[in-house]
Design a protein that fits this description.
Blueprint (H helix, E strand, L loop, with lengths): L2 E6 L6 H7 L1 E4 L5 H9 L5 E6 L5 E14 L9 E16 H6 L7 H4 L5 E4 L1 H10 L3
Parallel strand pairs: 1-3
Antiparallel strand pairs: 1-6, 2-5, 3-4, 4-5
Length: 135
């Protein structure tokens, strides 16, 4: 199993909507590096669901249920999407400020390449964030 972080602006697609829908396609990725990471995702991989922009924080966990396929919302170009389903909310959200302060997370892609909406997460980073979030 691999681990990932997927970002969503809460004004566009909040965690609460993800929970309500239970499963959705993750589309609209228009960055080549993020697209390539998404194409590496396998069914069963776990993703940290991250609210970006205002009050950035990891708020929950989703699981990949369908591997990369063509993004039907793309008007041009070679773009992909995956399907994800809710696993659970974190009992306590983990803010970007806390992530930056955690020495064990200093090399996390989220902190190195801040603009990516899909990025890999090392297993130890994933477990550390879950621990910080009360799991």
């Amino acid at each position: 199993m691999q681990y990932w972080l997927i970002k969503s602006d809460p004004d566009t697609y909040p965690w609460e909507q993800m929970v309500e829908e239970k499963e959705t396609f993750w589309n609209g990725i228009r960055n080549y590096a993020a697209r390539n990471f998404m194409r590496e995702m396998k069914k069963g991989d776990r993703c940290l669901f991250y609210h970006s922009v205002k009050d950035p924080a990891v708020v929950g966990i989703v699981e990949v249920t369908k591997e990369a396929y063509p993004d039907h919302t793309a008007k041009e170009g070679d773009w992909s999407m995956v399907d994800v389903k809710v696993v659970k909310a974190l009992p306590r959200i983990v803010s970007l400020k806390e992530i930056k302060a955690a020495g064990a997370l200093k090399d996390m892609e989220l902190l190195r390449v801040t603009r990516l909406s899909v990025s890999p997460v090392r297993e130890l980073e994933y477990k550390h964030i879950l621990h910080m979030g009360g799991l």
